[in-house]
Design a protein that fits this description.
By secondary structure, the chain is α/β, with parallel strands linked by helices. About 40% of the residues lie in helices and about 15% in strands. The structure holds NADPH dihydro-nicotinamide-adenine-dinucleotide phosphate.
């Protein structure tokens, strides 16, 4: 009887509202210093000029610490330390280099909560992303490349791999620790030493990482961290390095390429994107909506491979956009340190202004805007998740990288048209295809000019998988065996 009574009881009511109680992650685990120097030759040193800048939290503009502004002389000292450390490091057996890298990976795992809180505090991304994506992937990159360090002899048949020397690495603010891991791990595995410049707005996890290097007892000078602005990056490009690895804007990437032309220094560039996320009429729509949301609202859209152009087959455009808008209304925008937050703070005032400018251009050009009702915090930098419909391919919001939580929806009728429109961009970093047909996935993947094509998923990363662009999205690959090659020279 009780069994029957249970089965006939009414289903649980569907929640009418998605308000969550706040669930703040404590920031006690992070202890910040008042000021940070440069990490050169395994020591903290002051910038020669004595200059510094304040790094803040974009969630409320709270000053967090004073950070040294490295000048050209400081950069020269850092590259000299890396040069001195190079020969003994390169001479170590690969298995010995791997031990240090495994140690770094394990320490990152052990201290992952501390790093995740600091990443969210300094950069504005939701804690659930820094905790579940940035930190596990950063550790995974060190584990993965540690595994290659003693296999270089076999990895490239009929070629003898040698380290390049000193690598200068310049990284952006959207995945501060993860980009550091993408750059440093393959360089060390290949026997190179490193000078890395983090982005001006997000230096703190790179500085905490210096603590990890000491804990792992990495020989002094193998990794050096110099903080500063674009001028520090430019000084690194001109310094005594054998290679520059850069991730950031296409504009700065091009300037670096011009600067390096004829110098013999090697270069890899990972630049912007304007990815097409393409949904066919046979796709599982609810699943596609999750992929669209993840594609553009993950990390506030501060993602070079963000699915910022949504191409929907015309026959399903209306129901899909309806579903998307309903889903957007459930996104929780707010404090990055709240464990329920889906969309955090915009990284900087400058980036917020850029997003606002492009969104205003979208309205002016005639696109229709939708933003779900949400209350944005009063202090700090915020932008509501946004979708534009009625977008023409010529609009700036369909052409330019916005690097914010802003999606432009366009339509297509045939697969050929989808390919043509998707490829109609100067960029070529990534793309997404949503369809039930396996043959169509392969057909599309062959034709899309993008370094990565995801099928029925989006924003999936794995250290074993190469990542990089075509056209103005740059050249060279990071991740996988391909990601080792730019840090090696070969004797045939
Ligand atoms: P930048 O390209 O300016 O910054 C990337 C890195 O390069 C930072 O460390 C920066 O330092 C440094 N840098 C700046 N100028 C120079 C230079 N002349 N020589 C060497 N290094 C330099 O990107 P922004 O931060 O200004 O962002 C602007 C736009 O770029 C974004 O709106 C977005 O569209 C795109 N972008 C793309 C990224 C990607 O992953 N593909 C990542 C970040 C941005 P500093 O931080 O001090 O300026």
């Amino acid at each position: 009887m009780s069994h029957v009574a249970k089965r006939s009881s009414p289903p649980a009511p569907v929640p009418a509202d998605w308000t969550y109680a706040s669930a703040p992650e404590s920031r006690e685990i992070v202890s910040l210093r008042e000021r940070y120097g440069l990490f050169v030759g395994g020591e903290w040193v002051a910038a020669r000029s004595g200059e510094s800048f304040t790094t803040i939290s974009p969630r409320d503009e709270e000053p967090l610490a004073e950070v040294a502004q490295a000048g050209a002389e400081d950069v020269v000292a850092a590259t000299a330390a890396a040069r001195e450390a190079f020969e003994p490091w390169a001479a170590l057996p690969g298995s010995e280099r791997a031990k240090y890298m495994f140690r770094i990976a394990r320490i990152l795992q052990e201290r992952s909560r501390e790093f995740a809180v600091l990443e969210s505090l300094n950069g504005g991304k939701p804690i659930k992303e820094s905790r579940d994506v940035d930190l596990p992937l950063a550790a995974a990159h060190f584990f993965y490349y540690a595994g290659w360090a003693d296999k270089l002899e076999y990895a490239f048949p009929n070629r003898t791999a040698r380290p390049l020397g000193v690598a200068g690495q310049i990284i952006p603010w959207n995945f501060p620790l993860l980009m550091l891991a993408w750059k440093i791990a393959p360089a060390l595995a290949g026997g190179n030493t490193v000078v890395l410049k983090p982005a001006e707005t997000t230096p703190l996890t790179a500085l905490l990482f210096c603590d990890v290097l000491r804990q792992a007892e990495l020989p002094p000078g193998v990794v050096n961290i110099v903080t500063g602005d674009g001028a520090t990056g430019a000084a690194l490009v001109d310094a005594d390095v054998d290679k520059i690895a850069f991730t950031g804007s296409t504009e700065v990437g091009k300037a670096i390429q011009r600067r390096l032309a004829g110098t013999g220094k090697k270069l890899t560039l990972e630049l912007g994107g304007k990815a097409a996320n393409i949904v066919f009429d046979d796709a599982a729509l609810d699943q596609a909506v999750e992929g669209i949301v993840n594609g553009i609202y993950f990390n506030q859209g501060h993602v070079c491979c963000a699915g910022s152009r949504l191409f929907v087959q015309e026959s399903i455009a209306e129901p899909l956009v309806d579903k998307l808008k309903r889903r957007m209304a459930t996104l929780r925008v707010g404090d990055p340190l709240d464990k329920n937050t889906d969309v955090g703070a915009i990284n900087s005032k400058l980036q917020l202004e850029k997003i606002e400018e492009l969104v205003a251009a979208g309205r002016d050009e005639g696109a229709e805007i939708y933003q779900p009702p949400c209350r944005l915090p009063e202090r700090g930098y915020w932008f509501a998740p946004t979708v534009f419909t009625n977008v023409a391919q010529s609009y700036r919001i369909a052409q330019e990288e916005i690097f914010g939580p802003v999606l432009s929806v366009l339509t297509f009728r045939t697969p050929d048209e989808a390919v043509e429109k998707a490829n109609n961009t100067p960029y070529g970093l990534s793309a997404g295809v949503w369809t039930e047909k396996g043959s169509r996935i392969l057909w599309m993947a062959e034709r899309l000019r993008a370094g990565v094509v995801w099928a029925n998923t989006y924003n999936r990363f794995d250290p074993a998988s190469p990542f990089g662009g075509y056209k103005e999205s740059g050249f060279g690959r990071e991740g996988g065996r391909h990601g080792l090659e730019p840090y090696l020279s070969f004797e045939e």
